[in-house]
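User: Could you check the structure of this?
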Amino acid sequence: MLLMLVSLLCWVPAAKACLQCDRRIRLLHEDLSLSAPTVIDQIEVKKISDYAYVTYRETSQERRGVIDPTTLYRARTEYQSEFDRFLKTQHTGSVTFEAIQIMEKGRKILEKHLDTFIRDELCPNKCGLLNRRVMDCITCRYKIYICPSPSGQQDCGEYPVQAEEGGQAVLNCFLPWHRLLLGKPEYHYSWAPGVPGTKKLSENAFKALVVTTDSSVVLNQLHVDEQGTYRCSLLDQNGTNFYRVTFLLTVAHLPAQTHRPLITLPSPPLYGDIYSSFQRTEDLLVPVIAMVLALSLAGCMGLTFVLRRMMNQWRVADQPRRRRRNTEHVINIL
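Assistant: Sure, the predicted structure tokens are below.
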């Protein structure tokens, strides 16, 4: 431990490393050195901080020496939280020893995040070529980092696609690592007609379909003659091929439809046929009209008879009342 303290107290020229590429981390270290109780302690904490930068640089160099903004943000946020907790804690030991502990914790945080970044995120392309933008942990400047294809080629396989005649097929060649590519690469779709997989195709066999920034295309109202070998290539403005995938599209015929025989009704017999139940409308209409007129006349006659009988009954009933009224009128005159 004594040797470690002596080495940390030795002055080493400052070097910017991954964590120190963020200005807020550098300010934390400067505030820590200025908060030391004596000038000597401030100088010693400054030397410890400078040596911490060296250890951060060595840690990053052991792990490709690069970092992306997202990983740097994660490491910085975690280190800031630890640093805030450190400042809020009452310390009874040596100021220099406490500074060594907190800055060593920052190195371990950086090491943890770099290990995850290098293993899972730096080169996520399982096939194809990736050119991405990363930060150099030594110069704190952005640079282009090339992730070659693990298979040594940009062809990423073939995928069968089944569809029915009149239906649709979706061809999508997007992979998440395409977002990391520099510039604005575009998806170039082409196809070679014919039953897919039956023969080896040359480059001249493919016809250009569409060039788009969208990773997928939709083929609607498919016909059998549209089946074939479809290819998607991801190219930049200079023609660099980063990725290519092939779709083997097969369009199946619709099943044959069974036509049911039409049921034909027998034609009606000729009008006037004595054996036919069909007669002309005029022949049926005459007796119907005659019957309606007869019923109407009978109804009118019956109604007239009933009304006349009711009037006679009313007159017979009203005669005694009239005689009594006339007798009373004669008596009143006398």
